[in-house]
Every structure is written in structure tokens, then in C-alpha cells.
Design goal:
By secondary structure, this protein is an alpha+beta fold. It is built from seven helices and eight strands. The chain has helices spanning 3-11, 31-38, 41-44, 55-71, 118-132, 148-156, 185-192, and strands spanning 16-17, 21-24, 76-81, 86-97, 102-109, 138-144, 160-171, 174-184. It has an eight-stranded mixed sheet with strand order 1-2-3-4-5-6-8-7, with helices on both faces. Helix 2 (31-38) crosses helix 4 (55-71). The radius of gyration is 16 Å and the shape is globular.
């Protein structure tokens, strides 16, 4: 996978599907659903960004994201709950290392949907896209060391805890330690089976 191929794919990312969810591009019409969770302090406590102060900020952010999609350098999907067609969070790749054929996955979820297995379900699907279609060798995830909930999600999808980078980031006025988990392509195959990519081809 090279940079030009990634750009082409993520200018119009495919819709991904799970039993309870589907993942599609974020749209400007998602502003009310996004603001519902992005304005909450418990959501952003372990993230790099602060709560959205008002709906206008969320609308401006989603307008900006449309330009990032057009450029093909934004790798996140909106997570949509099938039962009510509501955007309940985001999940995708926060960065790629082309030379190492690896990527980092991240997610954010509305607290109303915590504790019912949504996060592992959506992360597994993004991992599947990464290994099956992008043919990655490694997918990793990082979390602030106090965020045990996020660590549990990573363990549930089959990632291995690699360790803690002590006070390796300066976030919101303080140094924080960051944990790293990862899964390799061959480990993923043992858990989830052989490659299947045809559904992504358009």
C-alpha cells in the first residue's frame, strides 16, 4: 500500500458493515449526533481534544472534514447504529506508516452506547479492512495509561499489550504516559480467518 493508493481509497471510503453497525463517511448532517457526545467531558478526558463548546463548532469541524476527505488524507468513519440510524461515534486510522506497512487505529463512542460491546465490534471491522483490503502487516492502538476501559477493548479484539511510554506526551497542560497495544497480520489470521476483500471492490 503506497500513499497514492491510500489517497484514492479514502477520498471515498467504502461503507463497512457489522451486525449492529455500519461505518460511512462523516457528513455535515451528523452535527447534532456528534455534538451530543463530543461536548461531554467524560468522552474527551483521555483524548487530545477538548469538548466541543457549541453546535456551531461541531458544524464547522464537519465542514472541514469534508475537505480532508476530498484530499484523501483523512481515515476516519462515522459509526452508525442501525436500529435508529444514529451516529454514535467515530472509528478509523489515525495515521499510517507506509514504510513499515502499519497503521494506528482509534475510536470515540457516545457514552450512551458504552458497555454493550460496540467498541470491540467496530474496531474489529476496521482491523478487518486494514488487514484484508489494505494488506497491512501491523495495526496498533495507543491509550492514556489511566484509561483501562480502552485497554480492555484492545485486549478483546486480540491485541497484545506492549508496554507504557512514560510521560511521553504533553496533553492539556500535563505529561501523560501512553500505553501501546498491537496485533500482527498473522496473529489476526489465527483469530479471524483468511483474507476476504471482494466486498470492498467497487
Amino acid at each position: 500500500m503506497n500513499r497514492d493508493e491510500l489517497t484514492k481509497i479514502f477520498r471515498d471510503p467504502p461503507v463497512l458493515n457489522t451486525r449492529r453497525l455500519y461505518l460511512r463517511k462523516m457528513l455535515k448532517k451528523d452535527s447534532a449526533d456528534m455534538f451530543e457526545y463530543a461536548s461531554r467531558h467524560e468522552v474527551t478526558k483521555y483524548l487530545l481534544w477538548d469538548p466541543h463548546e457549541n453546535r456551531g463548532f461541531t458544524q464547522s469541524y464537519l465542514s472541514y472534514i469534508q475537505s480532508r476527505y476530498r484530499a484523501g488524507d483523512f481515515y476516519d468513519w462515522a459509526v452508525i447504529y442501525r436500529d435508529n440510524d444514529k451516529m454514535i461515534g467515530t472509528c478509523g486510522f489515525t495515521r499510517f506508516n507506509i514504510e513499515a506497512n502499519s497503521a494506528e487505529v482509534g475510536y470515540v463512542l457516545n457514552p450512551l452506547y458504552w458497555g454493550i460491546g460496540i467498541a470491540p465490534e467496530v474496531v474489529r471491522e476496521v482491523m478487518r479492512f486494514g488487514f484484508d483490503y489494505l494488506r497491512l502487516h501491523r495495526i496498533e492502538a495507543r491509550f492514556m495509561a489511566d484509561n483501562r476501559r480502552s485497554l480492555r477493548v484492545m485486549e478483546k479484539v486480540g491485541m497484545t499489550f506492549e508496554g507504557i511510554n512514560r510521560e511521553s506526551m504533553h496533553v492539556k497542560g500535563k505529561y501523560v504516559s501512553v500505553g501501546v497495544c498491537s496485533i500482527l497480520e498473522q496473529e489476526y489470521r489465527k483469530l479471524y480467518g483468511p483474507r476476504y476483500e471482494n466486498e470492498y471492490i467497487r
